[in-house]
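Q: Two folds, back to back.
A: First:
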Amino acid sequence: MKVPFQIGDAKVYQKLVTAADFARFEDGLVHAVCSTFSLAQAAEWAGRLFVLEMKESDEEGIGTFLTINHKSPAFEGEAITIKAVLSEVTGNNVVCSFEARVGDRLVADGETGQKILKKEKLAKVLAPKIA
């Protein structure tokens, strides 16, 4: 693992809200705005942009935690800008804070955690256990 970043460095990811991002469950559509789940996935991706440049070819990142505070709606056709800020690198743990905005409006904020592991170790950890 290499660390070509400083604490406070930022990565930006932009996501266009589509109907695929709406809040839906098994009982149908909840509301026609970007779901917390979809925001969380975009936030994890924004933090992963750091991991992609930090991991070696024999390593991979895996999510360890996510906190998200959904503050306001994002509507179909709006562009959400997710800014991830590197807040901590401890060993192989990478932590980012993030804000998701549509223009000046705060849609969500929170924190993501990822760990960078050797692919071989990760394969063993994620392998199904035979009972």
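A: Second:
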Amino acid sequence: MGVSRQPSAIRVEIGELVLDGFRADPERVSAEFERELARLVRLHGVPVAANGALSVDALSGLATLPAGLSARRLGQELARAVHEGLSGHGEVSL
């Protein structure tokens, strides 16, 4: 029987979130983004890093978000889009 190796820690560092065309409060968006991404990583992990440490320069091909979202919803949807990219959907630049 094999031993499952679960990571003891997952660190996601995002250098910059650019919110062109959105009127939401960037601090609230950032707080909601962090909260939702942490929740998604706890629940689902980071599938593209399943084989060990991974450094990603950019995620592209992610869903487009409507400009009228509240700060809370925008942060949540951004986190979901990023997690989708980290789950192997979209294009990852290493």
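Q: And?
A: DSSP finds two helices and two strands in the chain.
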